[in-house]
């Protein structure tokens, strides 16, 4: 896997990697290379706390810049978000984490390929905010490729 990632880094300015859970060495290695990791979490207290612990572990492992540039995407699976989840989200924001909540959208619950136009306006807005946060955190590329980034 790392041979392919290494080659992609030399060819493309940005790569989107769908990594397994961060409980193995290869995932940690890939996170260490990341410029803007996008960490996706379910909208539950346990899942958000797990994601926040991952960010704390990244900092403790000397990857503070990776943790600071991370974008946390909270995927809601129901029409309402529990008060406890909103409280954990607020704590994460106060800790400096860029967090975007993607509202429940039945189109996202289907395994079929999707047409973004079929998503609700709120979902499209949230996903656009995720993309903007990633682009904002990528280094400027002045006069050519300034080095690869991974998201």
Give a short account of the largest sheet: 3 strands, parallel
- Unreliable spans are 142-148
Order of helices and strands: HEHEHHEHEHE
Q: Based on DSSP secondary structure assignment, what is the total number of beta strands?
A: 5
What global shape is seen? globular
Report the span from N to C terminus: 16 Å
Strand content: 5-15%
Strand line-up across the major sheet: 2-3-4
- Give the mean pLDDT: 86
Structural class: alpha/beta
Tally of alpha and pi helices = 6
Cα-atom radius of gyration: 16 Å
Percent range of helical residues? 40-55%
Task: Explain what the structure shows.
It is a single chain. The chain is an alpha/beta fold and 151 residues long. The chain has six helices and five strands. Strands 2-3-4 form a three-stranded parallel beta sheet, sandwiched between helices. The protein has a two-stranded parallel sheet with strand order 1-5. α5 (83-94) links the parallel β3 and β4. The longest helix has 17 residues, at 121-137. The relative contact order is 0.19.
Topology:
Elements (H helix, E strand, L loop, with lengths): L1 H10 L2 E2 L9 H9 L4 E5 L2 H16 L3 H6 L1 E5 L7 H12 L3 E5 L18 H17 L11 E2 L1
Parallel strand pairs: 1-5, 2-3, 3-4
Helix pairs in contact: 3-5
Task: Give a summary of the structure in a few sentences.
The chain is α/β, with parallel strands linked by helices. It is built from 6 helices and 5 strands; from the N terminus they run αβαβααβαβαβ.
Keywords for this structure?
6 helices, three-stranded parallel β-sheet, 151 residues
């Amino acid at each position: 896997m790392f041979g392919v990632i290494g080659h992609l880094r030399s060819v493309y300015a940005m790569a989107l990697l769908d990594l397994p859970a961060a409980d193995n060495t290869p995932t940690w290695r890939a996170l260490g290379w990341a410029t803007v990791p996008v960490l996706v979490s379910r909208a539950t207290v346990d899942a958000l706390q797990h994601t926040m612990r991952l960010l704390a572990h990244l900092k403790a492992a000397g990857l503070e810049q990776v943790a600071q540039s991370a974008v946390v995407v909270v995927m809601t699976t129901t029409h309402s978000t529990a008060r406890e989840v909103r409280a954990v989200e607020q704590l994460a924001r106060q800790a400096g984490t860029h967090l975007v909540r993607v509202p429940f959208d039945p189109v996202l619950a289907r395994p079929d390929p999707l047409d973004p136009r079929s998503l609700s306006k709120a979902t499209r807005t949230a996903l656009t905010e995720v993309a903007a946060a990633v682009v904002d955190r990528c280094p400027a590329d002045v006069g050519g490729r300034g080095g690869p980034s991974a998201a």
